[in-house]
Design goal:
- The protein is about 35% helix and about 30% strand.
- The chain has about 300 residues and is α/β, with parallel strands linked by helices.
- Strands 6-7-8-3-9-10 form a six-stranded mixed sheet, with helices on both faces. Strands 2-1-4-5 form a four-stranded antiparallel sheet, with helices on one face. A four-stranded antiparallel sheet has the order 12-13-11-14.
- The protein is elongated.
């Protein structure tokens, strides 16, 4: 549905986005992940037309578009992270105002339907500044959905919500029958509701693709004694073995390892190393799969 092709964005002399390329598939829920300052919000603002890219193209349904063009704007519902609302309006007044700007037909019917779906019917006539963070977030999400835009851009839609509110918003988003790009620092939530993921690090795309494909990469967990962790890391690095996680546990060292070759090859290398170093004591050699948080840490490690 939407493709970013070689997008660059500068602020002054600082290059924030560097040849960003990724695709949002029609009907998918795509999670955009990255540490603070990685470029997530800037990417979303470029797509939604808040910022113009310095280089690159955006393609929507196969056609090059100008994000500043109002005809493209009408295809997008954008919820910024800070969720700007007019505090002295009621939710009904605010949603009515947004709907009139967008020239949305059957506006009152849509407002009532969204208020019921997001459970704030009883608060439609209260000033927004009197509402809790959770209710304000629901009002912002309702404004994003007015007019049923085919593409939703949601920047941290669950930020600052308590667990019950997070579950409500998460369940609502997962039931939407539309295309969604969302950012979040709650990796467990992303893994649960997203079927695609894009990881951005220092303004560049570090990984992207279907969630299942990202998580299918095997991992080997080992625990051993008789060596120092720095020496072990040096040996493994020389054999193109990636260390996903490492920690000291008493005299033992616990490691989680991956490599581009198959798992049998990785196992063989570890056994060969243990035989070569008689003082090493191997206590664990166990296969597993990487979790999203482990992959995220590996790809965004400073």
């Amino acid at each position: 549905m939407l493709r970013l092709v070689n997008i660059d964005k500068k602020f002054g002399r600082r290059l924030i986005l560097k040849k960003v390329n990724f695709e949002i598939k029609s009907g998918s829920i795509t999670g955009l992940l990255g540490v603070n300052g990685a470029g997530k919000t800037t990417t979303m603002r470029v797509i939604s037309g808040v910022f113009a890219a310095d280089k690159g193209q955006i393609l929507y349904r196969g056609q090059i578009v100008n994000p500043l063009d109002y005809r493209f704007h009408r295809q997008i519902g954008y919820l910024p992270e800070n969720n700007p609302l007019y505090p002295f309006l009621t939710p009904r007044e605010y949603l009515g105002f947004i709907g009139q700007i967008r020239q949305i037909p059957h506006l009152n019917k849509q407002i009532s339907k969204l208020a019921q779906a997001l459970f704030f019917v009883d608060h439609l006539q209260r000033p927004i500044h009197q509402l809790s963070k959770g209710y304000r977030q629901r009002v912002g999400l309702a404004a994003t959905l007015l007019g049923n835009p085919p593409l939703l851009i949601l920047d941290e839609p669950m930020a600052g919500l308590d667990p019950n509110q997070q579950r409500l918003v998460r369940n609502f988003i997962s039931r939407l029958k539309t295309t969604i790009l969302l950012s979040s620092h709650i990796l467990a939530e992303v893994q649960e509701i997203c079927n695609r993921v894009v990881i951005i690090n220092r303004g560049r795309i570090a990984s992207q693709g279907p969630m299942e494909q990202l998580l299918e990469k095997p991992m080997l967990k080992i625990t051993l004694e008789g060596t120092k962790i720095a020496f072990l890391k040096k040996i493994l690095k020389g054999k193109n073995i990636k260390i996903v996680h490492s920690q000291k546990q008493g005299k033992a060292i616990k490691l989680e390892l991956t490599m581009d070759k198959d798992m049998n090859m990785l196992r063989k290398i570890i056994w060969d190393l243990v035989r070569k170093h008689p003082k090493w004591q191997l206590y664990q050699l166990e296969s597993g799969r990487q979790k999203l948080d482990e992959i995220f840490q590996q790809l965004t490690r400073i």
